[in-house]
Amino acid sequence: MTKQVAVVLAGCGVFDGSEIHETTLTLLRLDQLGIAYRCFAPDIEQHHVVNHLTQDVQEGETRNVLQESARLARGDIQPLGELNADDFGAVIVPGGFGVAKNLSDFASEGDGMQVMDALKQALTPFWEDAKPIGLMCISPVLVPRLLGDSIAVTVGHDPGVAGAISAMGGLHRSCAVDDIVVDLEHRVVTTPAYMLATRISEAATGIFKLVERVGEMMDQKPLSP
Fold first, then answer.
1. How confident is the model over 3-46, as pLDDT tens digits?
2. Angstrom distance (rounded) from CA 48 to CA 3
3. Which pLDDT value is given to residue 2?
4. 3-class SS of residue 91
5. Count of alpha carbons within 13 Å of 125, Cβ hemisphere only?
6. CB 167 within 8 A of CB 146
7. Is 144's pLDDT higher than 70?
8. 42, 53, 38, 37: which is closest to 18 by C-alpha?
9. Residue 57's pLDDT band (cuts 50, 70, 90)
10. In sequence order, which residues have a C-beta less than 8 Å from that of residue 195 and are 6 or more positions away?
């Protein structure tokens, strides 16, 4: 395994962390392609804790994003502050509401959102070095605040989220659940995943395409300016 990808997580569980199926499918496809990976997550308290059986917020309960993300990584994970882009050829961010609650405040602020500084500091070097960046599900909403304006992304067909992306200066492209949107100029790859998927197999098709495209782009030179 000569290629290596950083995977940024936001907790464990669709309603307050990283989406479990999306994360597992990402890691599975990377491994199947012979691409090594390392997982990272911020060492911070979650925005809140959600009972995934009832979807109720558990008042008074707190959990740590890094510790929860370690469940998905089988304990093999590092704090986000230790992510050095020089060690990786690309970065992928799975979805889940943790992206909108822990990595940013999109869930509460919409197009007035801010992205956590630690995420900007970790991912900006990938952007500056034109290394591929893959985002799925709700994660593409980060792009305008994280990377800049006029970058084509998708969350599928959700008009509210698509409108927020546009309001922040992004370019939203409609996309089927089993497909991807590739911004070749900016080297950003996105897929709807569980923004549209109703079955794990549907999510898998788009996620596998995203991982495969990111892997291919690691071997390709960026487009000339």
1. 999 999 999 999 999 999 999 999 999 999 999 999 999 999 99
2. 35
3. 79
4. strand
5. 12
6. no
7. yes
8. 42
9. very high
10. 95, 137, 138, 155, 156, 158, 161
pLDDT at 224: 64
Q: Is 137 a catalytic residue?
A: yes
Q: Is-contact 134 92, C-beta < 8 A?
A: yes
CA–CA gap between residue 204 and residue 214 (Å, rounded): 15
In the numeric block, which tokens belong to residue 47?
A: 């925005």
Q: H or E element: which one contains 99?
A: helix 97-101
Rounded to an integer, what distance in angstroms lies between the CA atom of residue 158 and that of residue 152? 15
Of the residues 12, 39, 137, 175, which is catalytic? 137
* Bridge partners (DSSP) listed for residue 7: 39, 92
- The one-letter code for the residue type at 22 is E
Per-residue pLDDT tens digits for 66-80: 999 999 999 999 999
